[in-house]
What does this fold into?
Amino acid sequence: MNTSTVSAPNSALETYEQVAAASNEVAGLLAKRLKTETQGEVLFSAADRGRYATDASIYQVTPLGVFVPKHAKEVATAMAICRDLKVPIVPRGGGTSQCGQTTGVGLVIDHSKHVRNILNLDLTAGTVEVQPGIALDALNASLKKHGVWFPVDVSTSAQATLGGMAGNNSCGSRSIAYGNMVHNVLGAKAWLSDGELLDFSQFENSSGRARQIGEFVKQLAVQHQADLQNHWPKVLRRVAGYNLDIFDNQNVRPYTPDGKVNLSHLLVGSEGTLAMTQSLTLKLSELPTSKVLGVVNFNSFYKAMDSAQHIAKLGSGTLTAVELVDRTMIELSLKIPAFAATIRTAIIGDPEAILLVEFAGSDKEKLKHELKQLVALMGDMGLPNSVVEMVDDAPQKNLWEVRKAGLNIMMSLKGDGKPVSFIEDCAVPLEHLAEYTDALTQVFQKHGTKGTWYAHASVGTLHVRPILDMRRDGPQKMRAIAEEASALVRKYKGAYSGEHGDGLCRGEWIEWQFGPAIQQAFGQIKQHLDPLNLLSPNRMVNPPKMDDTSLMRFGNNYKIIPIQTALDWSAWNVHNDAATEQTTAPGTGQDPAQGLAKAVEMCNNNGTCRKFDAGTMCPSFRVTRDEMHATRGRANTLRLALSGQLQGGLESPEVKEALDLCVGCKGCKRDCPTGVDMARMKIEVQHHYNAKHGLPLKDTLISNLPRYAHIASQWPRLMNLRNQWPWLARLAESLTGLSAERSWPEWKKEHFFNSQRVGVSAQEVLAASKPVVLFVDTFNGYFESENAWAAFDVLSAAGYQVHIASRTSQDAPSQHLCCGRTYLASGQVSKAKEHAQALLEALLPFAQKGIAIVGLEPSCLLTLRDESLVMGLGEMADTVAAHAVLFEEFLATENKAGKLDALKAQLTPAKKPILLHGHCHQKAFGMMPSITQVIQLIPQAKVDLIESSCCGMAGSFGYEASHLEVSKQMAEASLLPSIRLQQDACVVADGTSCRHQIMDGTAREAMHVALLLAQHLPK
Ligand SMILES: Cc1cc2nc3c(=O)[nH]c(=O)nc-3n(C[C@H](O)[C@H](O)[C@H](O)COP(=O)(O)OP(=O)(O)OC[C@H]3O[C@@H](n4cnc5c(N)ncnc54)[C@H](O)[C@@H]3O)c2cc1C
Ligand code: SF4
Ligand code: SF4
It folds into this structure.
């Protein structure tokens, strides 16, 4: 199945008619020609245009359409069509720019999906030629085995593309050692807007049009020599404007080691306004084999800033980074479970700031010596015992992850006030850093806000974002603060735009920075290379005002449509205080969508959900690479729907389509830096969609399973016929949409709920010395009873008195309990609530007594700790949630308390290696350490965690014919290949669906951890 998003209909004519009717004649023609003349994706629906109207900035400009080329040559075709129709072009990579570089009115060309090949790796020359859409991490992953890397290590390395990095002249944390993009690009092949493909490389060897462009720019540099000398900031980090100084270097680090002019450097930092990059040739660096990190703790922020200039002189060439993390960031990190332990390893007492000082090279002993020099320096500066020395790789790597997440950590603030990027990368010479930061902090205070400082102290580029409310007085305050900040930058002879580029936000400051003559020269360069003004017009030349609210995401007309939500979103419905960051009580934020809109607006478009590394988020993006199927695309779609920018609101087909491949894995709940919880949002959205469109048969069938399971299980032969007769499976598929290719879980006459193992009574467990309540869910109870029995046996063997949770009401048709998950999965919140209520009532007496409620199926048990809390079930939901634990979590805790000696004494040694796959919800709730620890209770157990995202089955998702292929692709991304690689291993997976997917894809039987432990008990 083709999972790509071709929103326009099949024939070019239809495309034209639909787009022209919805938009305008030119858009229709453009879409039709793209459709006829290319194989790329032609995305012109309102939702697609809306999704590409934003990047990681505060701006929103809706493009005419979006084109996702299949091949590089289709970029040229699209450019030719745009030229004919006079449609501007906005080149785009990952769309992570912070200044609005990728927001524009024309045709957005997204390179990140297909145009991402490595074209030529020359290890002898130490160069690589790449297409612009390749992400930095993807490139470096393939270079690693050769001992080299591309060292411009931007924080967004997982999603930033090389084309975008060159476009912005990006800079990494280690720029003190490696420089910016401009220092590391050796050549570019690029199309001018008239269609000519040029080779931009060494000026002295160039000929033809490229040579002529070089001559033109050279003559401008000569003409403006005095202005260049007088107005050009003399710092490493200056990325504003065009690099006119390639012919008269002003950077503290020359662009080329030999001083020869490279014409590709003219394109670097030009933000797609001069030419469209077809490929880039990059300089590779040796991958350092050793690194050491010194974390210097300061009790005054000023002192930290003042020390940076001295620290930057250390290392005799091995110093690679000096990065700041301030008090606020430390405190925020301490509150985030994923970061708390790591940050504690770096701090001594209660520091106001820490500096991460890294030395890298090939000789660890030499680096350790450098570290000692840092310690000595700090001693000399009156700060003895202030350095945490990290010599091993693991703690260093963990701490860098926290630093890299810095901005995102800050962005997790709830409420309308958000840290806003507009002066966040001003660069000043190091000797002025302390005074500059001090003065700017006072500016923030004067305007009733505050900013958190972090990042590149080594090169005088400290990131800071004052908290502003862009729906109210934010734009005015932004202007006022920018004026005062710019005066400071001028006073200290710095660069106003030192890392993130110009875009919409800083375009107007280019002239301020360089003066009118140089600005005019920039205009001439633009005119010379792009006389048609086709490439991102009105950006670096003739830019709009930074505070033009008509270009903003939360502009003047932004309004939320009132809705009644099914779930409780009040935690997001708050106001915050810009100066203190305190938030008001839940529910007081005046969100007409009762907090849902504010939850959706937490997405700041940073694009972390486009990553491919460890973690779960976002499985559907991982397999489709479609913007629509990333958490960001979904959040943007919902924002558009909730704010009336998408016709039909939450009930629209566009919203349904955007959420269709969301597997509800909760990967984003954990991995998204601002905590966008799309799984929960999908429940809410489905609720609204069902209310308008009704419930499909398949959802009725699946959701009601807990209701009819006790009846169906009495007729197992009949119920299982569907699995035996292919024609019946096909008939079922045509009626329900559930794929005939998938087997359905097998019904059994004897199952846990009608077995003899009854456990102790409620009264007995309430009085027991080692009490535990076992909550057996529908799936483990009816279909895989062996897991429930195993759990019962293991808990009993460990000496617990086990009570099986059952309904309190005797007249219920079945005594088994259900958390309501099957209903939630299809948005039936009120039915889910009924079930959850019965479950909570049954469990409450035990929870009130502090007895642990142990569950087996992650998605069922964790419903008690997640959705149950937002269904209006009152205090009892909180009480039960506080005691609801997964089987492995319970055992891991009890083991730590020394209560499992009896069990451990009985466990027999493992005979096979164990492969562990985590259920997405286990991962989202940070349970993987528990299950690993519990497996290790088995003597000689050797457990390997499979680095996998979602298995792709995700409840009923993988059963549906329309999702079958995507489901398989998710499983094939890493889970199934890892299992196939280890034929002798025993596979552990706690999720029912995960086990099913593993069986379907590898014919291997995976088991619940309870069963694994039970198998190691004596018979
Ligand atoms: C949380 C966060 C952290 C960040 N950290 C850093 C950091 O550490 N260092 C840093 O420098 N930046 C940082 N950035 C900014 C941004 O991530 C970088 O500038 C990144 O390199 C942009 O890559 P991209 O693929 O997203 O480019 P995009 O945003 O898609 O595009 C960037 C520019 O390049 C142009 N472009 C893209 N492709 C082409 C092409 N084929 N031809 C011509 N022009 C093209 C675009 O038009 C645009 O002007 C950060 C951003 C965020 C949100
Ligand atoms: S969903 Fe989260 S990770 Fe994705 S862009 Fe939005 S804030 Fe970033
Ligand atoms: S719940 Fe999973 S699939 Fe859905 S958006 Fe979040 S990470 Fe992606």
Residues 603-609, 631-632, 635, 668, 672-674, 676 surround iron/sulfur cluster (ligand 2) (CB under 6 Å). The first strand starts at residue 41 and ends at 43. The radius of gyration is 30 Å. The longest helix spans residues 829-848.
